[in-house]
Amino acid sequence: MKKSHLYFLVAVAGAVMMAIEILGLQILRPFYGMSLYLWAIFITVTLVAISTGYILGGRLADQGVNTWRLNLLFVIAGSWLIFISFIKLPVLLLADFLGLRLGILCAAIILFFAPLTLLGMILPFAIKIKTDNPGEIGRTAGNIYATATLAGVFSALLTGFLLIPHFGVTRLIIFVGMVTILVAVWSFWKDRKNSKKMVTISLVLFHLGLVLSWRAPITKIDTADGQLFVEQSSYDEISVVEKDEVRYLLIDGAVRTAVRDSTLDPVAADNVVIDLCKELFFRPGKMLLIGLGGGSIVGDFVRDSWKVDAVEADPVVIDVAAKFFKLDTTRCRIYENEGRRFLQHNPNRYDFIVLDASGINLIPFHLLSTEAFQLMSSGLNPEGILAVNVEAVGWDAALIQSVAKTLRQHFQTVIALPTAEPPNVLGHVVLLAANRTLAIDDEVLGHPSDYVNLDPYLHWVVIQRNHGWANRYEPDSVKAELLTDDFNPKDLWAETINLAIREKMKETFGLQITNN
Questions:
Q1: Whole-angstrom distance between the N-terminal and C-terminal Cα of the chain?
Q2: Exposed end of the chain (fewer CB within 10 Å): N or C?
Q3: Long-range contact set of residues 124-127: C-beta below 8 Å, sequence gap at least 24
Q4: 10 Å Cβ neighbour count for 447?
Q5: Tens digit of pLDDT for each residue in 261-304?
Q6: CA–CA separation, 130 vs 72, rounded Å?
Q7: Could you tell me which of 15, 103, 63 has the C-alpha nearest to residue 495?
Q8: Is 164 helix (H, G, I), strand (E, B) or coil?
Q9: Sorting pLDDT into bands at 50, 70 and 90, what band is 139?
């Protein structure tokens, strides 16, 4: 085998391994959320699988190596990748009863361990084939591992920045499998010796993958099922679904915004509680929203003459908010940026800052630390208020207490407005922080009885306003952890919250995995 031929195969193996690592996370994250557990477990499975490939490949290479075996590894690995799109849902359903951690481990092993192991076997095979002079084995091994690694770097950039956003996860993993088989066909043909049968078999598998790609369970827009939009952005999977007269924005499988599909009025209690905060100001002011979602909060404040800036890192979310949730981008300023980075470079000061970036992954830890809250505090006017919308299981959850403790490092007053009943279930708690007293006249809350026969929706809104304010409390944070950039145990509490979110999603939508 020519040197260029061998190094090309090594480069393909390295590129495909890295593509599997990125695509594997994208396949699992809508079901499990991009938590610390998912990262840790998937990286562990990946490294163990590749290491197993190195060991097995080294032993088989010592028993006798030829290019036929090397090419066969590509064929089997590519075939496995093609079929992942068909077996992923049954595997995820099977692993679901194991819980979050064991479920991730089981699914990752079943779906990705075999192809990563097979591709890992290729490197010791290549070293054995290339080593003619034992005195050069170190240089040979170094060159081969460097080639595979550099190809992996290129693959990571290509997959993450270009291929996933434009082609989606399912199509891409089938394509990677087909390319892997096609490389084997080319290699068999180049070798020619004892390879005609394998060329035929490989071509059959390649064309089978081509046919199956048309029938793969790729998420499609199906208005009959209420799905209006689905797209894999550079950050998350974004979808819009209508069900039972409610329009939902889902990000990575978790509800981010919920509105009435007829009027687009919000039907999430936390939105009502955030809207209630207008009563804490004498007049409309300037508000900053970190985390756009469907734009319901922006619309509520703009209608009451507030000047609104919103920060959203994902351009797809901005487009979806405008197209499906009627966000009027001419009446507010939308910044495509990451929240903390925006705060570091933005000289403006606000009367009200809302941190509303929760989802199945909870608020990103870098926005939920004393350093982040210091930036938000610096971005407020002296009488300004910071609202942090946190989803947790229970009003007195450890996450709520720790956020309150961290806020108290920068604000004199910290109160929590709950939305869920009873107090020990999943729900949003809006924490308000300020350097002044926070008070609302009971009369401006409204009386639910006045709306019983007037408007069911307004009746519900008034109930949520009264519930949130009447049940306000100061979270106990004596024994709570202080959240910092260096120490942030948010993910330790995320498992319980994610499991509760997933159960709620099953009740609302049924079990849906939507990797497009």
A1: 39
A2: N
A3: 124/54, 124/57, 124/58, 124/61, 125/57, 125/60, 125/61, 125/65, 125/69, 125/70, 125/73, 126/6, 126/9, 126/10, 126/70, 127/61
A4: 11
A5: 889 999 999 999 999 999 999 999 999 999 999 999 999 999 99
A6: 18
A7: 103
A8: helix
A9: confident
